[in-house]
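Project standup — Tuesday

K.O.: blocked on the structure for the chain from last sprint. Re-posting the sequence here as requested.
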Amino acid sequence: MQQAVNFRSFARKLSIYRKSFRQFLNRSEKTPPRGIDKITPIIEKEVWKEVDCLTCANCCKKMTPTFTEKDLKRISAHFNQTPEAFRKQWLKKDSNKDLVNKNQPCQFLNLKDNKCSIYAIRPEDCSGFPHLSKRKWTEYAYVHKQNIDYCPATFKMVEKMVAQFGDLKK
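H.V.: unblocked you, prediction finished:
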């Protein structure tokens, strides 16, 4: 059953398990356990039965998506703006020269209900977040290392993977 995110509990668990979960992610990225790519989508389904994103929205409050040119064209058209006008109003280039939000929380997040005001046309990066079974484990473990600090669903996924495969100690 989906549950509201308890941020106090999440922060406490994160402080306890962050180091060991990152070690698991590092080891499993280098030497993936047999069957990890088959079990990941199964575990992801379990995670979404337990975590209610709308009670959290940390991704929208503390992170920013990368906007592709395709995203920029689609979203700016929705607002009857040119891509350049939209870019100037809302976006900046980060240290990687990617287009990201100027502000946090995201300008499209409704803070009263944690819903996205452009959900149907949101950036591709948002629609795939938190990328739990997006690609092969070895191609995305590095993203999970970042996301466990912000996303209770990612944390829960890694927690279940550690339970499934052990801590992979040498």
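K.O.: great, moving the ticket to review. Strands lie at 91-93, 99-101, 109-110, 115-116. The CA atoms of residues 152 and 167 lie 19 Å apart.
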